[in-house]
Design goal:
With about 450 residues, the protein is mainly alpha-helical. The chain contains 17 helices and 2 strands. It folds into 2 domains: about 1-135 and about 300-430, no CATH class; about 145-270, no CATH class.
Length: about 450
């Protein structure tokens, strides 16, 4: 009976995920507020039923009561974050909030299936990070001096990265964390703020050179620390923000050419770069060494097929570092390729929402911040999924909100809170413009009325 429930559950979960994904893109075209509210409520119900079905299956396969306790704690967290956002920030983007909850849900389901202790730790970190993130939107609206801290952001980033390079121990071939914290995750935020505060007004050659030098220092330290994924994310954000600020295709072309040349140089200078390229080109040839992870990942993805084997039916634990870097492979194996495609589409919807906010807001400082953070998010998703599917060489970054990692999930929560603050700021701009239009129309009517009275 349990096996029948497990087999049916994967189709139920897949159907619910497809409907949720459809809602993400369908709502973009809906302008009627009442219809949007109804669809946002339906999304919450879909998340609830996906979680209920998934945790029911995990409990039936393990009969571990801690799974039920975790499920209750998780649902309390989701209820609180939804209620608090609606109370504190009435103009917040609820679609952005729902997508955050959906991605966290998928991560919690897979972590609970893989290691309940890691899932509990992740939930605790997410809850703590969410408490801090609730303060961010109001700070974005009120702290106008943020755009003036250009060199503070640069100094924080360089000092922290240098500290990691000098003091951190090597883990999985790279220097990533210091005292259990991965500073590069937080520096992603400070780097975007640095670029935005430098380029939001009066862009000239001097500022472009300054931005290039600071970005080069960030990327250079990360490469020396062998944190290639973060280096790629920083470089991509730099290129996009420079291009948007200057509107110069020539600078973009020079940047791409320079980055490509630097990648070739890094290949010949650093052995770890050659190892990852070798594992990407032919992982079976180096299966016992650097190719082992990617081969196991590809086996898991192939085993899952379109519909997956069902929760607790696969063997994702055979993939090294599956909770961190290869959780997408575990999702493919147990929930299926179609579910994984829907997950990619939800991530894409997430990025398109951030891009839409960046395009609509009029404040150039916040516009650049939204664009930079969106670029970093999209690049990280691409590097993670591209690496585990052998589309590109593996870079060792986590899937935002889904994979296990305290620094990564807190950084992403703060990023979402910043975007929410910018979204609310944009709503304030729209309200101010509408109020100005109404006042101008009122004054025009008064002038017309006064002229008519004068004629009589």
């Amino acid at each position: 009976m349990i096996n029948i429930i497990v087999e049916l559950s994967k189709y139920v979960i897949l159907t619910l995920m497809i409907v949720y994904t459809f809602h993400c893109f369908y709502m973009v075209r809906r302008q009627d507020q009442e219809e949007r509210r109804e669809m946002l409520t339906r999304q919450l119900m879909l998340i609830f039923f996906i979680d209920f079905t998934a945790f029911l299956v995990i409990y039936l396969k393990t009969f571990d009561f801690s799974v039920i306790l975790f499920y209750v704690e998780m649902m309390v967290y989701f209820a609180l974050i939804q209620i608090l956002y609606r109370i504190i920030y009435k103009n917040a983007s609820l679609l952005l909030l729902n997508n955050m909850c959906m991605l966290l849900s998928i991560g919690f389901v897979m972590l609970c299936r893989l290691d309940i202790k890691s899932a509990n730790k992740q939930l605790l970190i997410v809850a703590a990070g969410s408490v801090v993130s609730l303060l961010i939107p109001v700070m974005i609206r009120k702290m106008k001096f943020l755009k003036n801290l250009t060199w503070v952001y640069a100094g924080i980033g360089v000092v922290l990265l240098a500290a990691v390079f000098l003091l951190a121990k090597t883990s999985y071939g790279a220097k990533l964390s210091l005292m259990g914290i991965q500073p590069s995750e937080a520096i992603k935020l400070s780097f975007v703020f640095f670029m935005a505060s430098l380029l939001w007004r009066d862009v000239n050659l001097k500022k472009v050179i300054q931005a290039t030098v600071i970005a080069g220092i960030h990327v250079g330290i990360l490469v020396l620390s062998k944190d290639l994924g973060s280096a790629m994310i920083f470089f991509t954000a730099y290129l996009v923000m420079i291009y948007v600020a200057t509107k110069s295709p020539a600078l973009l072309g020079i940047g791409v050419a320079g980055g490509s040349g630097a990648a070739v140089v890094a290949y010949f200078l650093f052995g770890h770069v050659r190892q990852r390229v070798s594992a990407w080109k032919d992982p079976m040839a180096v299966y016992k060494n650097e190719g082992y992870q990617i081969v196991q990942s590809l086996f898991a993805i192939g085993t899952g097929g379109w519909f997956g084997m069902g929760l607790c039916q696969g063997s994702p634990e055979k993939i090294p570092v599956v909770k961190n870097d290869f959780i997408f492979s575990a999702i493919c194996e147990e929930l299926g390729g179609i579910f994984a495609i829907c997950l990619i589409l939800v991530c894409m919807s997430f990025f398109l929402m951030i891009l839409n906010i960046a395009l609509q807001i009029k404040n150039p400082f916040y516009k650049l911040i939204a664009l930079g953070l969106g670029t970093e998010y999209a690049c990280q998703v691409f590097l993670t999924i591209g690496g585990v599917t052998k589309f590109i060489p593996m870079t060792g970054v986590t899937l935002p909100l889904v994979a296990y990692g305290g620094s990564s999930v807190v950084s992403t929560l703060l990023m979402i809170a910043i975007i929410q603050g910018i979204y609310i700021y944009r709503e304030d701009e729209d309200e101010e413009i509408e109020r100005f239009r109404k006042e101008a129309a009122k004054r025009a009517r008064e002038r017309i009325q006064a002229q008519r009275e004068g004629d009589y």
